[in-house]
Amino acid sequence: MNRFLRWGLWALTAAGCLALCLTGAGSVLALGQATAFPFAPVGRWLRSLSLSGPAGNAAALALYGALSLLPLALLIPLRRQPVREDWLLGLAVPVGLAVWWCAVNPGWLFPASETMELACLGGAFWMLMLCWALLRWLRRGGTLRSLSLALELLGLGLVAAICGGCFGQLCSSWQRFLASNTGGHALSQAFLLLQFAVSALPYGLELWVLASARRLVSAAAADRYSDQTLRQSAILAGRCRTALCASLLTQTGFDLLQLLCLRWLRTSQIQLLLPLDAILLLLLALCLSRLLTEGRQLRDDNDAII
Questions:
Q1: How far apart are CA 68 and CA 46, in angstroms?
Q2: How many CB atoms lie within 10 A of CB 126?
Q3: For residues 36 and 126, what is the distance between their CA atoms, to the nearest angstrom?
């Protein structure tokens, strides 16, 4: 992906997440609104269409059936024999029928909260479609092109985690703190800001690691065992090691700093951090670097024999 396009998508993602947090839409509410889209607005339009008269009602029913069968359209452009994960698309049809029905008739399944009803149904539908897409991606064997796309999507997810998850947690913690405390809490507020920085640091470091992973994929696409590929593989392993050490030391240092200042703090959050994902990423990067190095040595030995 072009660098300017990537930065543009990151900026849009960050701006959208920050806007949701600053306008008072909490992370749970924002997630519910995201999973309910586009079911909520389209459902309101279909309901108004069905109430417009007999012809409008017939058109709304036809559109309701077409929208529910829409997941099956993903089978058309693939031009292949059906595979095991395609049954998820068939399962998406009855799920879609329920989602669109509740979108047109809010409160039918869960009268206590129409918003929660559509958020849960929409979340189930989109999780089903995401599961199908990931299984299809895995079946393609993880080609370099698909791997590059996965890295770009992961970058967007990390930006959203920083600007949405971590910043949203800061906003909610800040509001709860101000609601329960008055005056003389500058130190506690400073620690809330530090907590945000500590929680966002691992995601920022993963973006740094991600940049090295993209360069490794580009180098491997040209020549898997070239000097550039081996160099980028070593850089990736080094960055994974640095990111893991920095995350552990930063969280540990912040916890110790809280203990030193605990007497003067009105809020604190001590965390026992066990970054299994970062450890797994480091091990995979080290294994990849080792395999590429051994493969390069084996190729050089074969060329020497020939």
A1: 13
A2: 17
A3: 9
**Is the per-residue pLDDT at 63 higher than 80?**
yes
In the block, residue with structure tokens 């990931």 = 134
**pTM score, two decimals?**
0.70
Distance CA 139, CA 80 (A): 13
> Measured between alpha carbons, how far is residue 143 from residues 148, 156, 217 in Å?
9, 20, 10
Instruction: Tell me the per-residue pLDDT of 123-134, one tens digit each, with 9 for 90 and over.
Output: 889 989 988 888
Residue type (1 letter), 56: G
CA distance 60 to 147: 41
| pLDDT the model gives residue 62 | 93
Measured CA angle at 105 (ends 111, 39), to 5 deg: 105
Cβ atoms of 91 and 108 closer than 8 Å: no
CA–CA separation, 22 and 244 (whole Å)? 31
